[in-house]
Amino acid sequence: MEITRRRLLVLLPAAAVAWKYVLAGTPEGAPNYELTKHWWAMLIDIPKCIGCGSCVRACAEENDVPEGYYRTWIERYHVADWKIERPEVESPDGGKYGFPPHADDGGKNFFVPKLCNHCADSPCTQVCPVGATFISPDGVVLVDKSYCLGCRYCIQACPYGCRFLNPKTNTADKCTLCYHRITKGLTTACCEVCPTGARQLADLKNPKDPIHEFLKTHAVQILKPYMATGAKVFYNGMDGSVR
Amino acid sequence: MQIPVEGFMYPNEVELQWSILIVLYPFITGLVAGAFILASLERVFRVEAVKPTYRLALLTALAFLLVAPLPLQLHLGHPERSLEMYLTPHRSSAMAMFGFVYLWYLMAVLLLEIWLDYRHDIVVRSQTEKGWKRLVYRGLTLGSTNVSERSLHVDERLGYFITLIGIPSAFLLHGYVGFIFGSVKANPWWSSPLMPIVFIFSAMVSGIAAVMLLYMLSTRLRGQRIDMRCLDKIAQYLLYTFVIDFSLEMMDLLQRIYEADESFRSLDFMVHTRLWVSQVIVQILLGTVTPIALLGLMQVLKVTEAARRWIYALAGGLTVIGIFAMRWNVVIGGQLFSKSFLGYTTYKMAFATREGLLPAIILMILPFIILWVLVKLLPPWPESASVPSGATPVHGTS
Amino acid sequence: MFKNIEHLVRLAVVMMIGVLGFVILRAAVVPHSFGQYGHYRGAAIGEIASRPVAFAGHETCEACHTDVVEQKKLGKHVVVSCEACHGALAKHADDPSSVLPKKLDTAILCARCHEANGAKPKGFPQVATAEHSGGLACDTCHQPHHPKIETAEIKTEGKK
């Protein structure tokens, strides 16, 4: 069957709305998107993560992340029962190309995907001297690359190591929670490609979002809660050794 | 370039963000604050003995203050945007206010105080000098050549008032630099309420030592005799501030060791390996304990003047090196360990790059060139005096 | 009296000019949208949102490829979205006739998820590919959109 763009638009009105902005893209983003009607977060289900690295690769492709820097990455933990405080952690190339085979030696082994926590009380936006990084009204921590000085104070202030200096732009760079996608009704690139559903985009202001039921019925944690950052990436089934 | 990593770092942590240039920044501002505080000793606390260094200390502070923002500028990814710090300062940022603190200190304190203090000389020179120099001095008079006793008295009173404001400003300038580091809660090596206080005292230590060395050097170069009463007094102040500084640092260390929080094991390992030479050997043993011991001995032993001069020079030199090492250990050390506390990275200093060793060396030489120009333009001592400068009042026009 | 503080007045004037210059500069240079939502350039939000997407999203794919949707429904891969294996294809979705997806090598592709690894969840199907297939492409036996091999099929394969 002959598929044309016109036909696609007719077929799927929901996608059509997004498509107008997909390639042409206007500064206002997709219509009907109200900044104050959303509060974005993410759910990571650790027992579902298989460490395939799809999210890392998709993120790099979607966002043009330079080689050697990571907006999202995966860590592999190995915790022997007698030293829970000293886990062995590795993340070769951020887990972009998966992980080498690992013998099951009786300890506890699991993968932990990491990304910006889009903290509600983010230390990184707090320290920016000029207002080049900020929390958007819909709860996403963003960087204005045409305003950033490249002083890197925000990189120092992030307790999670989520920021880096982009060598192409010489400005701070980080996960945008695929802001250009979520404002068009799409999910993030990492969530889109996650084959096991270990990553789920969530809108905390949407009462119909399944996140609410999930948070109610599961023991969910955030990373480094003692940092009091108001992190909005929630981890289900996270071991105490994760840091 | 592959950076050697030991253990586990979050992948974005491997590369260090703040280079040797950011080591220079607190080092240089520290010298400024310290030099100024030494200068104010004479003016506010009326310590007559240190008078010969008053103007030299002010000019030293100015020379270094003018250079202080340069390492920051050079380090920025977009130096052309740095004006944004003034245009849209972010109130919640510990760094944003630095621009204003800097400007306040430069414009409202240091330049003003120097101008008031030198105004008499400037007016005289605007009438006696020739050529372009005359123009410079005439510009500096701002078109007013009134040096009546009454107007100089006004200057003297105002100068005193500015020095009074200047002392807390100097504390603010450098305490603020300490706060930029001390307020980073994500980094346990930095995060400490003692950081601003330690920075202030280490600033005073380095500034006093630097002015002491400059005083000895400049007096030698001019073929003058060093005023030993002045030198002994400066060395004494250096000792006192150093003891306070060292005690504060040890308090911080003791607290960390005893509390042994989650970061301790990781930081302890770092101090025993990657920072062993720069922290334990250079900063603590050579740069702190040795000069304190030397200066302390000078207080109790009877030593000849010549020997005292050599020992003061040695102690001062070691002090400046020690404080530089302290800045290095704070800035670089704070980035060598992972915030996961599971690994360490390495700082590979480049040479002839924008943030390499070469620009750092140039930036360290630059203040001395500026100081040389300033000394030529505004001589801190009576030019034709054959007696030790301490014997005659330097700015005693009142 | 004024005569004796004339130089200070002149200094004050110089400083006032400086402050005034700063105020004027500030008004002229600060971007208009600065402060629209908070202490940042409001227009930055729109700029970031306007970035083109690379992954079209499975709903877009499913709009046309209804046959594959039906096939996937029968197997475990129903939860895996199209671009997880096929890669970013927004360009294909926008111009289906001229931008065509690449052919995939299942020997590499499937192993990314299914290669045995001690850290993978125990319930997740995984094999040591070297032993399991000896480098043979996975789609020799498995149909990726519906990976479970029906027993009947294996028997017929074996008889061949």
Characterize this entry briefly.
With 243 residues, chain A is α+β, with helices and mostly antiparallel strands.
What does this structure look like?
The complex is a heterotrimer of chains A (about 240), B (about 400) and C (about 160). With about 240 residues, chain A is an alpha+beta fold. Chain A has helices at about 5-10, 15-25, 55-65, 125, 155, 180, 190-195, 210-215; strands at about 40-45, 70-80, 90, 110-115, 135, 140-145, 165, 170-175, 200-205, 220, 235. Chain A has one domain: Alpha-Beta Plaits. Chain A has eight helices and eleven strands. In chain A, helix 1 (about 5-10) packs across helix 2 (about 15-25). With about 400 residues, chain B is mainly alpha-helical. Chain B has one domain. Chain B is about 70% helix and about 0% strand. Chain B has 14 helices and two strands. Chain B has helices spanning about 20-45, 55-65, 70-75, 85, 95-130, 130-140, 150-180, 195-220, 230-260, 265-270, 275-300, 305-330, 335, 355-375; strands spanning about 5, 345. Chain B has a two-stranded antiparallel ribbon with strand order 1-2. The N and C termini of chain C lie far apart (about 115 Å). Chain C folds into three domains: about 1-50; about 55-100, no CATH class; about 105-160, no CATH class. Helices cover about 50% and strands about 0% of the residues of chain C. Chains in contact: A-B, A-C, B-C. The interface between A and C is large, with 74 and 51 residues.
